Amino acid sequence: MPGSEPRDEFELTGLAKIRARRRWVWAWFFVAIPVVFLLTALAPGVAPRWTRAASLLVWMVLIWRHALVRCPNCRQAFNREGLRSNPWTSHCMHCGLLLDGSGSEPPRV
After folding, report:
1. How far, in Å, CA of 109 to CA of 100, rounded?
2. Model pTM?
3. Are 18 and 65 in contact (CB under 8 A)?
4. Contact (Cβ atoms closer than 8 angstroms) between residue 14 and residue 72
5. CA pair distance 103, 44, nearest whole angstrom
6. Res 76 pLDDT > 90
């Protein structure tokens, strides 16, 4: 198991990237998608119907980008281990590095 404490700026930056991608997924889900759906329903002349599909596509891309992020400590997939996946985990599923950068906890079995 690699070192458990974030040792350098690279690891802290990597953890910040994971948190930022997670925030983008939630922000798009709670803000952009409802706004687009309301605009197309209430003012069809302002936003064409295809904007609904486009907003959902952007959300899917954001989820995909978040799923591909790697742990800055062990360089493995942060959210996945084998067939197991947890996009909202608070620690790396391989080395246990905590997302807030405070240290690590052992990976759960």
Report:
1. 21
2. 0.73
3. no
4. yes
5. 50
6. yes
Q: Where are any strands of DSSP class E within the chain?
A: 80-81, 84-85
CA–CA dist 66, 99 (Å, integer): 13
Cβ burial, residue 53 (10 Å; 0-12/13-18/19+): exposed
What number is the average pLDDT over the span 98-109? Answer: 67
Distance spanning both ends of the chain, measured CA to CA: 15
3-state secondary structure of 108: coil
Q: Are 4 and 97 in contact (CB under 8 A)?
A: yes
The label of the residue with tokens 């759960």 reads: 108
Question: What three-state secondary structure class fits 87?
Answer: coil
Q: For residue 24, which amino acid is it?
A: W
The token duo for 60 is 């899917």
Q: Are 11 and 73 in contact (CB under 8 A)?
A: yes
